[in-house]
Amino acid sequence: MIDILKTRLVKGVVTKRIAASKTAVYEPAGAQLKALIAEKFGRSLNIREVDTGSCAACESEIIACNNPIYDLSRFGVNFVASPRHADCLLVTGPVSKNMAQALRSTYDAMPEPKFVITLGDCAFDGGPFKGSYYIENGAKSIVPVALHIPGCPPDPETIINSLLNFLRI
Amino acid sequence: MDLREMLVQLKQDHNVSALAVDEPHRDETYIWVDNRDFRATVAFVQKKLRAPLSMMFCQDRRAAGGGFAVLCSFLCAPLKKWLFVCASISEEAPRFDSLSSVVYSAGLFEREIREMFGIEPCGNSDARGLRLHEENWPAGFFPLRKDFTPPSAAAAPGNHYGFTRVEGEGVFEVPVGPVHAGVIGPGHFRFSSAGEPVINLEIRLGFTHRGAEKLFEGRHSDAVNLAECVAGDSAVGHALAFCHAMEKIYKAEVPLRAVYIRAICLELERMYNHAGDIGGIALDVGFTFPSAFCALIKEKIQALNRDLFGHRFLKGVVCCAGVAKDLDDKRIRLLKSLLEDISRDFAELKRILHASASFIDRVDTTGVLKRKTVEDLGVSGVAARASGLNTDLRKIFNGIYEIARFRVCAESAGDTHARLHVRIAEFEESVRLITEFIHNMPSGSVRNEAISPGAGVALGYAEGWRGPVLYWIAARNDGSIDRCKVVDPSFLNWQGLAYCVLGEIIPDFPVCNKSFDLSYSGSDL
Predict the structure, then answer these.
(1) What's the structural domain count of chain B?
(2) ipTM for this model
(3) What stretch of H or E contains B256?
(4) Residue of B nearest to A121 (CA)
(5) Is residue B497 a part of any domain in this protein?
(6) Which of A54, B1, B303, B446 is deepest in the core (most CB within 10 A)?
(7) Mind listing the pLDDT tens digit for each residue in B122-169?
């Protein structure tokens, strides 16, 4: 306990310190995002993520969005455990045939109004797996997609900036 | 034991004579036997080498008039060699004798061969699909045959998957997945439980199957981008194994400076993943503070990856016969200073973890995987080292690792605590190795431009952060890939996870799972 307190006192607020170089861009973007979410969604934007066959790099970056540096949830973006709690479905991966039904069911389980975001090159059109016998070449053929966040994988800053630009519309 | 002695003994004991013995590369030997002798030979070789079966696969050679071939490989550590036992299979009678009764770990590979090639492993009673799920894929379509055409949309899918049923009073089933509560890959876990302890865990995977092996066919060494996407968190390991195979086939020399930069990348990848896993283990027993701390360390390393090589997952760094990006002095200074910073943070993390008796109590004796089980299942990598198996490709095929005095990090208890300790020790060893590598790295070019594509077969391998990543590639005369077999350590290690939770309570599954941290996409391909 003393160790922990000591660390806390010595280190200060790590989120600000480590992201110092990025703060200038990242923090205002986050503040705007927060204001937009408050305006359009009441308080928060709840996202349910489904991996339809990604290589786990996209998942890793989504998790990184919630690490103490980016801490996306302080801007009102939460990742929820059930589609029933979600406003938005975030799809990664090229949609393997084995995941097509699971993706459909997850989308159907979400309450209206709802929208879908695809994340990563695979989810757009299959990416490097395009043309394979076992994929659906992206999520578009299964669910209506409102926004695509490109990258292999997109880094946390790209994810938050894409969300911001999208909500501005 | 010498290879020649082994062949003589094989002849004496089993009356099996090898049809041919090939040695295309210094570290690969292929023993061809008759299809009827295949099983006896494999059993003999495994008994002699006491090594696990590392991979088993088929190849369609009908275009060259050779029917099919089945190959299985063993790692012979004392000889620093991969030993392949191979047999031809005729097109008219596509079958061979199942190995699963003599080599348990062959069972999964045989199911894969059956669904991908339509070749029957006679005697393997588990007829269920592995990746081509019965409810989504009609019977009779074998993707890795050369004359495969995808089924039409109208083709009716086959049966449903039969889970193992545990019956008796008070037994209940808990099905989980494929869509999980967290931000994580898809897999189906079915727990059978009576009261608290788990009686059986059946893991059904294949949800992320994307047909990667088929996509490699026809491509050249530029397919490294595909290899990086087989398991994205292990991009360097996969890229290295893929390029290693291509370089062996093309007989391309890798400049020494590139070898060092590759090794630095491999260790950086190990570090950021181990940091993430240590945090995950803490998080899964509800100890959130070190988990956040680990996330900071992981982020620091990934940001460093981008500053050094332009990509947070180090994709696009490794290429055939070298690396695409060199490290200049400025970047090397940055790497050095951040390594010091990171190891200071890591030392602090270790203190925090060890200061919590309740945390250690939760991981200690949780999810024990016995050494015998590890050997039988062919479990490799971190999970094997935590159960007392002193196996690491970096030690066996040492090269620059020997100069850096690499030390294998192993534990013996086989529980979550041991796996945690192996990760902690490997993280620290990686920091030390990178420091050594920077010191030893010569100047010079980082890419050999003069590669001449050609035909051949080769096994490429690298000790990724999960364990050995293997790519077996056969190339045609123009250097294009005819067959690429990928084995990520996750493929066999998932079975290890299913065994280690037996007798544990379901709430301990997440922490056991995290202590293995296996890849869905690497296993499903």
Answers:
(1) 2
(2) 0.89
(3) helix B256-284
(4) B229
(5) no
(6) A54
(7) 888 888 888 888 888 888 889 998 888 888 876 777 777 888 888 888
